[in-house]
Backbone:
């Protein structure tokens, strides 16, 4: 029998993996009891660690609506259950940790965030609107509100003179009773006078649009990963050295005027940013001839 080509092998593994995961019982069925735990298939061409990672992802998804944090079985338990080595189990857990599905605590084990928030990064929507659409509980705690001269980086973002009066509003967003994000917003005082007279625990977007007549239209954001600061760790109730998603965003009114400059920190174990990409046609002369060639 002829050997399979690399492409044929990849296709076979992909099809096998789809069939394998489709056989996992859906949420809520009797087959999900401990007596019917799905095991890895040792006849499959899929590496053991990938199979185990897929099974654990499914198990985590089953618990996403439960309160608290789901603790995974120990490495020894997983190794014994599936008849594989601890090194293979660690490989699977490393994959899940790298992809943000789990986190580890020394001496305690591996834990999964039971409910992750996924947001389309190309849509301009307030946190309040986003959580209302999901039907999730949102509580906003105002940490601080003050008027101050605009720092240079804030003035640059808002296209105002350095030192011009701005409001600095810091809020903690709590979703389903868990701290999710610390958001510090800067607003030109000239655009929203007497901001302190409003209930700032409600939607800021709605306030700007209804009371101040600022129709929010577009935004420009920058996302990066970093470690949480000690102050943020205290507010978010996470340990120091925890990775977070950090976002800077400038929001513009329909007139093109910058209205808001936001610095937000999102828990990395709870939050995902999804981006939809579209292929743009090649523009360089002769480039289209290389499409489909190796490395193209």
Residues:
């Amino acid at each position: 029998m002829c050997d399979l080509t690399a492409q044929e092998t990849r296709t076979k593994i992909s099809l096998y993996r789809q069939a394998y995961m489709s056989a996992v019982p859906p949420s809520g069925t009797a087959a999900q009891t401990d007596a019917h735990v799905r095991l890895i298939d040792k006849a499959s061409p899929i590496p053991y660690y990938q199979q185990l990672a897929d099974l654990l992802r499914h198990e985590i998804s089953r618990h996403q609506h439960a309160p608290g944090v789901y603790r995974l079985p120990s490495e020894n338990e997983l190794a014994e259950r599936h008849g594989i080595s601890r090194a293979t189990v660690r490989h699977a857990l490393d994959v899940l940790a790298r992809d943000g599905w789990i986190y580890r605590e020394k001496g305690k084990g591996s834990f999964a965030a039971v409910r992750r928030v996924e947001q389309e990064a190309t849509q301009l929507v307030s946190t309040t609107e986003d959580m209302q659409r999901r039907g999730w509980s949102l509580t906003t705690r105002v940490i601080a509100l003050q008027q101050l001269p605009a720092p240079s980086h804030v003035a640059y973002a808002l296209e105002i003179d350095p030192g011009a009066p701005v409001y600095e509003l810091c809020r903690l967003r709590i979703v389903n009773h868990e701290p999710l994000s610390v958001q510090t917003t800067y607003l030109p005082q000239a655009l929203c006078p007497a901001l302190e007279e409003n209930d700032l625990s409600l939607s800021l977007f709605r306030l700007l649009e209804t009371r101040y007549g600022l129709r929010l239209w577009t935004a420009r954001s920058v996302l990066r990963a970093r470690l949480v600061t000690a102050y943020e760790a205290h507010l978010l109730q996470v340990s120091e050295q925890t990775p977070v998603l950090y976002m800077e965003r400038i929001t513009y009114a329909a007139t093109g005027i910058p209205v808001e400059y936001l610095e937000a920190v999102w828990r990395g174990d709870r939050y995902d940013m999804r981006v939809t990409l579209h292929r743009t046609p090649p523009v360089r002369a002769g480039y289209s001839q290389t499409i489909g060639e190796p490395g193209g």
